[in-house]
Structure prediction request, 212 residues.
Amino acid sequence: MKRNDLQLYFIMGTGNVLNKKPITVLEKALQSGITMFQFREKGPNTLTGQAYENFARECQKLCQQYNVPFIVNDDVELAVKLGAEGVHIGQEDLPVSMVREKIGNMILGVSVHSQTELQTALQYGADYVGIGPIFSTTSKNDAKPPSGTEFLQQVRIQYPELPIVAIGGINCLNAHTVCKAGADGIAVISAICESEDISNTVSTFKSLFTDS
Ligand SMILES: Cc1ncc(COP(=O)(O)OP(=O)(O)O)c(N)n1
Ligand SMILES: Cc1nc(C(=O)O)sc1CCOP(=O)(O)O
Ligand SMILES: [Mg+2]
Prediction:
C-alpha cells in the first residue's frame, strides 16, 4: 500500500445514501478521483445475506475498473472470499493478531485511540492506522467523543513514516486542520454521500493533500 492511497478514502454502505442509488454515488466518487474505498454495510436496515455479498461484489468490480483499493470493513471472511485488497478493523472487532493471520499480506487498517492500541496494531503489522473521530460525526452511532487533532499530531511525530488516515466529521471546511496535523489523508462518509457536487467535493479535498 502507498501512503498516497489514503489521501481521499471514501467509506460507504447503503445506509449512508438517501434519495440516490449507492452504486451511482460510488461510481461518481471513483470518476472524481477518490483514492481508496471501504465497503461498510452496517447499521439499521442494511443489506444481509446474498444481497449483502452481491452489493459488495458490485462495489469491488467498480473499484477494480478505476484501480482503487477495495477494503472491507469488519467482515474478514467476506474480504478473503472476495479477494479484497484489504480489511479495516477497530477495537471492537477480532483481535489484530488473529486478523493478520487470516488475511496474510492483504492491507490491514486498524482504528487506534491510544498508545496501547497503537503499539498492538504496529506489533501485528497494521499497514495504516485510522484516528478519530476528530470532529463530531452523525455517521457512526457508537463513535467516541470527538478527539481533535492532538493524538494524531503525537503519532505523526513519533512515527514520521506511518500511514495515518483521519476520520470523523471531516468536511471541506475543516479538512485543512487534519492535513496540518500530519494525516496522510482523510476518510469520509457524509461529506461525499451528502454532497450536491461530488466532483467538486473530491477536488477540494484532494487539493489539500496535493498542493503545497
Ligand atoms: C479508515 C477508518 N477508520 C476508522 C474506522 C472505524 O472502525 P471501527 O472503530 O471498527 O468502527 P466501524 O466502522 O466498524 O463502525 C473505519 N471504519 N475506517
Ligand atoms: C466509520 C467511522 N469511524 C469513526 C471513528 O472515529 O473511528 S467516525 C466514522 C464515521 C465517519 O463518517 P463522517 O465522515 O460522515 O463523519
Ligand atoms: Mg469495526
